[in-house]
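User: Show me a protein chain along with its predicted structure.
Assistant: Here is one chain, sequence first, then structure tokens.
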Amino acid sequence: GAEAPPAVAPRTGAGGPPQGARGPGAGARQQGSFGRWSVSVYYRSRLKDEVTLANGLAPIDVSGRGGIDATGATTDGLEFEGGFFYRGMGLRMGGSWTESFETPTVGGGRLTFSDRFSANARLFVNLAAMPRVVEKAPLLLKGARVSLAVDNLTDSFVEVRDQTGATPLAYQEGYQNPTGRTIQLSYRKQF
């Protein structure tokens, strides 16, 4: 058997590419010329959050104090993520902001939890999309990807103070933020 000739789609009136054509056509050229990017931002706000501990007891409003045990989500917050990819290189970022709040303690005191802004970043290079670079060291670079990740870019944590301005032992930075900012460099290769 002889191979059948490839099917040809009808052309557009101006002599452009076939209608419905996919593959290494305009889409691939557009990606190489302009890259891809995306940005998303989310804002959340809880209008009501109450807890009833037992029947007959009045509900407790916890909307402004991080939940019943001060470990939940605050009333207002912001989340974002985005990225950019161009010719084998890319950057992705994401993070959040949470509002400060106060919660009462046993004995009539209170704890104040600070707001927090945190961000993470990922930078990566896909060497398969860079044939000229791979030619210089194909054994090492062919099918390889290098990435740099930074978690907690701002090295932030929620600071907690009591009514005297002191930080209780359980809320010291070593407990709240034991790893701090984390930087990781990785190399991945496909064989």
